[in-house]
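Q: what does this look like with flavin-adenine dinucleotide bound?
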Amino acid sequence: MEKTIAGKTIAVNEEGYLTDFKQWDKSIADVLAAEAEINLSPRHWEILGYLQNEYKNEVPLSIRKIGKSGVVDIKEFYQLFPKAPLKTATKIAGIPKPASCI
Amino acid sequence: MKHLVILGAGTAGTMMANHLNHHLKKPEWQISIVDEREEHHYQPGYLFLPFDIYTPEDIVKHIEEFVPKGVCLVKGQINKVLPKENKVKMADGNELNYDVLIVATGAKIAPEEIEGMKGGEWQKSVFDFYTFEGALALRNKLRDWEGGNLVVHITEMPIKCPVAPLEFAFLADSYFKHKHMRDKVEITYVTPLSGAFTKPKATEALEHLLHEKHINIESDFAIEHVDNETKEIVDYGGKAIPFDILVTVPTNKGDEVMARSGMGDDLNYVPTHKATLQSKEYANVFVLGDASNIPASKAGSVAHFEAEILTENILRFVKGEPLKEEFDGHANCFIETGNGKALLIDFNYTHEPVEGTFPFAGVGPLRLLKESRMNHLGKLAFRWIYWNVLLKGTHIPFVSATMSEAGKKYN
Ligand SMILES: Cc1cc2nc3c(=O)[nH]c(=O)nc-3n(C[C@H](O)[C@H](O)[C@H](O)COP(=O)(O)OP(=O)(O)OC[C@H]3O[C@@H](n4cnc5c(N)ncnc54)[C@H](O)[C@@H]3O)c2cc1C
């Protein structure tokens, strides 16, 4: 599937997650954040950067791991990305939705 | 003489002992299996115990009954594995040296991970059914409960048999109907996932059933604590759900022995190659069943398929041949839906559960992802098959270790 985000044609899956991280940039993150009714602050960017880095290092992501990472505690993670923080944050970060579960 | 040691005589370890006993013979090989328990539990039976469908005798047998003659059963607690020295230390101070090690120590619940879960209300109004004691306490509670809010809850993934909590909700619906008190019970299913299950087609089918049975669903709920005063579960977002009975599936973790041995990840699961079942760190260590971190369901059926493939790989390993990268994550699970019916799902790493027929394409007799009475009989027969076929490591006719795509409706 393709979607036009911030004036660019971007490959996404049925749930709207980017399928090619190379197509991600900050303007895309801004649009995806707005769709989730989030205004990205410097603190948001820090966490998005951390998630992207974990993804590049092929570390599977989970709420539990993020809570223990020292980067952000789970309470704050929820405040920054309300409702389903991991799903929302990974979408904005342009990385796959974590397959936490089988 | 070479020594193969199996840690854990549960579902997976017992199956491996039975398989390998045919191949690795004395005097070249000695096989030992280690466990601290006297009893072998049929864990899928824990689901039925609270509803008085099974009795304790149906699901508990002596561990020795299933360990083949010729395999040495070592009783006691494992303290630590020293993988660099090829050695296992027992709590009583004894040591076992091994040439090949199989880790099958399973997974268990860790309610202490969540604040207040194992608090004052534990086994009074907060229950688990993933242990024998929990399921039994819950049975006693349900027998004379007069109704109220029943909350069925999953703490976090992954858990053993991820469909069991849903089955619990379905069975509760039918249990209270039969007791003519369904109108006095509100059932709510609370999950950290965004829907009833993890795969889209099965989620659709299962959510339809929840709806039909008037079971409420609360998704994306990441629990922070259990409030024992107000009797509520509260999530990180501040959402609170009140309960009169909370039936929770606490965090599942691998055994502490893997943490002590430095062999586990943050949940004590052992990093394992998902297609060969060899440990990622130690070539002579293999892992199967719930103890590994592979992205497959933690289920007895998965352990059964793994055992067939792992047996071949261990034989290859001892002959110095390359391992087969064959395990595809095959899982096959019955899902009890209450009122004498069940669903069946069959899937693997890459193929989600879909509709169709099983095991014979186009024929059945079992139907995939559809409720039927035949599937329910299949689930009940599974207990007999478990004790008499699975644990003995006998191949189930017509059901292959890798998943078959025939008879399934992918589009
Ligand atoms: C409620 C419930 C319902 C289920 N329903 C189904 C179902 O319908 N279908 C299905 O296929 N699966 C089902 N399962 C899952 C299935 O029971 C497990 O996946 C299976 O038992 C895993 O086998 P295992 O050998 O890996 O672990 P286990 O069978 O748990 O065995 C682990 C063994 O290791 C021993 N051990 C661990 N640590 C130590 C130590 N330090 N020292 C000594 N011994 C130790 C333990 O005593 C235990 O005997 C269900 C599970 C539950 C809880």
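Chain B has eight helices and 24 strands. Chain B has three domains: 2-51+61-108+253-318, 109-252, 332-390.
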